Amino acid sequence: MKFRSNNCVAVYVPDLKKAETFYSSVMGFRLLEKTPVQLEYDTGRLLLYVNKAASVRPPIPSFSVIDASSAKAHLAQNGCEIIDDRGHSLYFKDPFGLVYDVIEE
Questions:
Q1: What rounded mean pLDDT belongs to the chain?
Q2: What architecture (CATH level 2) is domain 4-104?
Q3: Would you list the DSSP string of 27-71?
Q4: Worst-scoring range by mean pLDDT, 24-28, 29-33, 35-39?
Q5: Nearest to 32 by CA among 12, 17, 47, 54
Q6: Domain extent listing, the chain
Q7: Which residues contact 69 (CB under 8 A, 6 or more apart)?
Q8: Cα 72 from Cα 92, distance rounded (Å)
Q9: How far is CA 65 from the centre of its chain?
Q10: 104: which DSSP letter?
């Protein structure tokens, strides 16, 4: 199984309107897409996904794999907790408690 970092990171905040003001105006990032629950920004070297959530959470780095189902099995067999399986993508917690995103290419 091979994981490759990609150019995506996600953050979770409770107030998307405030986040949009900050990331668009203060940081000067270019807004690529906006939905009621997510903002997608081009920050230069990475895409920043700002997601609506009940509370602030640490940033979540993203990795790409060829087969998300195989990645899920591999991670689970190696002590990782799958916390959100979306079919072709998933969030998992590593043995140290850090959360990562995996996206099928």
A1: 94
A2: Roll (3.10)
A3: S-PEEEEEETTEEEEE-SSSEEEEEE-SS-EEEEEEEEES-HHHH
A4: 24-28
A5: 47
A6: 4-104
A7: none
A8: 8
A9: 14
A10: E
